[in-house]
Amino acid sequence: MAYSLDLRKRVIEYIENGGSITEAAALFQVGRATIYRWLNRQDLKPTPGKGRQRKLDYEALETDVSENPSDRLIDRAKKFGVRPSTIHYAFKVLNIRRKKRTSLSRKRPRRTH
Question: Please, which domain of life does this record's source organism belong to (predicted)?
């Protein structure tokens, strides 16, 4: 849970004015270890989360699509070590449309009833 910048400043100000860390922890309902971390930091602003690292490199996928346009999703998934749904989602994010097979529809004769 990220504490507000205002609360962080009030806790540090309380300690700088002579209050103990244990008293500040009880008064502001913050853990002592948290207060020690705040005291050791240069800036009290919360650090942004780094997020999760992507397993699939989108640039490599785009390169692969341009070099091998006829590969299927499952082939690409095996190549990159991910599931086909991951490739499908990446295509959606990158706005890549899969090529439709028009040659099969031309080879079949039309049915007449």
Answer: Bacteria
Q: Which are the contacts of 98, defined by CB distance < 8 A and separation ≥ 6?
A: 73, 91
Residue numbers of the domain that contains 67: 58-97
Measured CA to CA, the distance from residue 113 to residue 110 in angstroms comes to: 10
Considering the domain boundaries, does residue 53 fall inside one?
no
Alpha-helix residue ranges (DSSP H) falling in 41-83? 58-67, 73-80
Instruction: Examine residue 103 and state whether it is found in any structural domain, yes or no.
Output: no
For residue 107, what pLDDT is reported?
Answer: 64
Q: Is residue 108 part of a domain?
A: no
Element (DSSP H or E) covering residue 15: helix 5-16
Q: Mind listing the pLDDT tens digit for each residue in 69-83?
A: 888 999 999 999 999
Domains: count for the chain:
2
User: Is-above-0.85 flag for pTM?
Assistant: no
Top pLDDT among 24 and 107 is at 24
Q: For residue 107, tell me if it sits in a domain.
A: no
